[in-house]
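re the bet — no i am not wrong, look at it urself. input seq straight from the record:
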Amino acid sequence: MRNIRCGIAVLLLVVCCSVTSVTAGVSIGIGLPNLSIGINLPLFPELVPVPGYPVYYAPRLDANYFFYDGMYWVYIDDYWYASDWYNGPWAIVEPAYVPLYILRIPVRYYRQPPLYFRDWHRDAPPRWGQHWGRDWEQQRRGWDRWNRRNVPARAPLPAYQRQYTNDRYPRVEQQHDLRREHYRYQPRDRAVRQHFEQQRDQRAPAPARRERQEEPRLRGPAPQEQRQEQRHEQRQEQRYEQPAQRGQVQEQRHQERERYQEPRGQGNEQRRDEGRGRGRDN
């Protein structure tokens, strides 16, 4: 009997220690407020710009945590999640609808990179086409080609959220009103804008709610709209490069004219010299 009691006590001690270790770390809630993949962020995280990209990352978090175009983005367990508040609630973003500049973040800024990232170049984006397959790559063709000299400006950080920590973190129904009051920035990226609008609609009070709610999924723009967005970027890049190309073409044409004119000038000079020689002979 004494041995059984000792065994139960040891088991309870192990369970308590494991629960304490989980709640002491940092993780990100997802989906509905009651769903989570760990504990919540107690404070507004430190966000640092990714050089050359309109994106911020969180260097002190053990998570792939980013901020882009007015929203927070997390990559964990092969899924992207988005929210307009630093600690959620989060919604899944399907791979086909992840914004381009989120896909382009270099591997080195993922604080918890998956195992399959290890062999990839740290200063290049992840090989999403290799990971998500040929269908995704065909649908998002051109995602890894862009004009690095024509990158949009970073969105301002929503510093007003710093005051909402721990127990002061607002409820879901309060978040939209607080953002509208303190943060006037509106997403410029079409995909982000549609994600933001979907989250806003999902948080709006409904006359009747389902008893069983599914984890929200952000669909984003249609593939055709994404291809139009990529073509628009390519046209901007071409307009940026066309003046330099025209200058090169004009320089080549000028050099060709000089090469053609030089033999003619030499022939005329030679004929004039011959004429002078005949005049002296006469």
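see?? The chain has a mean pLDDT of 76. told u. also The longest helix spans residues 223-281. so pay up
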